[in-house]
Amino acid sequence: MKAVLCKELGLADKLAIEEVADPTPAPGHVVVDVKAAGLNFPDTLIIQGKYQVQPDLPFTPGGEGAGTISAVGEGVSHLKVGDKVIFMCQTGAFAEKVAVPAITAIPMPDGLSFEMAAGITLTYGTSYHALKQRAELKAGETVLVLGAAGGVGIATVELAKAIGAKVIAAASTDDKLAFCKASGADELINYSTEDLKARLKEITGGKGVDVIYDPVGGEYTEAAFRNMAPGGRLLVIGFAAGDIPKVPINLCLLKQASLVGVFWGAWASKNPSEQMQNMKEILGMVADGSVRASVNDVFPMSEVEQAYACLTERRAKGKVVLTP
Length: 324
Hints:
This protein is of the alpha/beta class. It is built from eleven helices and 15 strands. It has helices spanning 41-46, 114-118, 121-134, 151-163, 174-182, 196-204, 220-225, 250-255, 264-270, 272-287, 304-312; strands at 2-5, 16-19, 29-39, 64-72, 84-88, 97-101, 106-107, 142-146, 166-171, 187-190, 209-214, 228-236, 258-261, 295-300, 319-323. The strands form three sheets. Strands 3, 4, 5, 6, 7, 14 and 15 form a seven-stranded mixed sheet that branches. A six-stranded parallel sheet has the order 10-9-8-11-12-13, with helices on both faces. The protein has a two-stranded antiparallel ribbon with strand order 1-2. Helix 4 links the parallel strand 8 (142-146) and strand 9. The chain is globular. The relative contact order is 0.15. The mean pLDDT is 92.
């Protein structure tokens, strides 16, 4: 089979596509013929050696996807050859086949394309965990989403609306904001041309926002945090801007607010039953149409470098997906 290989750490131009041996299923595992795989921000870090968990070289990146089961390992009874599934894995999804623990493979709902299914697990899993378990978001609260047109950003816009929150989407271009509006955002801020702090004060009437979802970091974090409502929660998701912000800690006291870290992967591995329940709820929202699972940027595996560039250059609107 063909697979994307990271043989030396660096940017996506260091990746290679080579023939490797087909995987075989260990006990408790299944082999999936990959039809589509989701590209996420951690995938840009792991090939540079900058992620929290680092595999040995060489490795195939990719942590989620969708496809059809082609082999079943000993002890697996709830899945069979031919089943369409959504899967998670630490690495290996950017290949024509991948072996994954059967417990991480979820039957794919009817009516969902492989491309849409491939983009659900990490982005919607992260965002739903952040809103549900970490922020304990309630209907009627206000959520600010930074980097709102990206994969986790647009997932948060959709999920927060489904929960019943008012959503303020912040992004860097009017085109991205139009995408956010079509996905349900109530208010829009272009932080390339508008003052984020001033616009938040205007939109909220000085009351501030209850929850900030921040996968961006950099200069926008503090400006947003200064518009936090009493009892608000700043969800620390990641640092797509490249800079880790240094927020004055006295703001937590003055705002009676909380800094809340979100490391979905670690939580999901330690709480598999809760994660599976989250996924069932997410797929239920997809089924009833309250969540769209938007995919706008699909690349063949042969264009893996271009796919990475779409993500790192912040051109993506929704999910970036690779198809073998």
